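Methods — Computational structure assignment.
A single polypeptide chain was analysed. Its primary sequence is given first, followed by the predicted tertiary structure written as structure tokens.
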Amino acid sequence: MTPELWDRSSPFRDMALGRGIPGEDVERWLGLARSCVTLAEGGDGPVVGRFGGPVPLPVGTEPPFHPFVAALDLAALPTGATGLPLPSEGQLLLFAVPEGGDYGNRGSVVYVPAGAEVEERDRYACGLAGTEEYRRMVEAFPEGELRATADVSLPYHCAIELTAEPWSEPLPGHPRAEELVEVWDEVRGDVASRGPLQIGGYASEEAVCTDPLAGAVYCAWKEAEAGRWGGPVSEDVSDWVLLADWSPGIDGWEGATVHWAIQRADLVARRFDRTFTTVYWNP
């Protein structure tokens, strides 16, 4: 986290200390802070991509099964602001369906290298295009330019799952985690900007107790165990990063959140086809 973003966290620090949380617990929690980029359709930040529009797939690429969400211009992202080892140029294309399911991969990511020959496809050119409900959903996806703001992200989750009662416990080393998450929830608007799409940072969803990224890791492992997802899959959440989070805000799918997760080794190797996508949705 840059000194500027550290300074921006002062409202969180002040509120936490004001509630009697010991200073060492507060500073230890702030040590978990991650850089991220918030993308919104308004604001003063640079244009770094867009929601919707034609899909610029590399020539010969089979259209992804899930609908197109957004395209990101990696060269336009603020340098180092995502906290992720992303390529310095090219585009990332995000695909997802904002409905939950049992373990299965609910989206994908395509990397388009700079200078690659592309052919435009429409966002319906995928495996779900034939149903009326699907088309109604996709027609409600947002469209428009996306502007970037460099932000700071703190955990929205306060516990880890256990395999026996009491089924969860506070994050190791953070006995005041629940209180600190409550403070972050209240003061976040004074520290970070808001937008429907986030690159890097911590995953969030409508109701958070344990880390949504850990849930994505578990789903990826289960899919690999069942032979439905190839390649090595680490069960250790520390080997994974949140690539992106999207809160669609679509009528009929309120409260849905899409998480694109990837193993750090795959990200470094630019194996974006190894991205695993989960959706939290409580219809």
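Note: The helical segments are 3-8, 10-18, 23-30, 132-139, 177-191, 212-225, 264-268.
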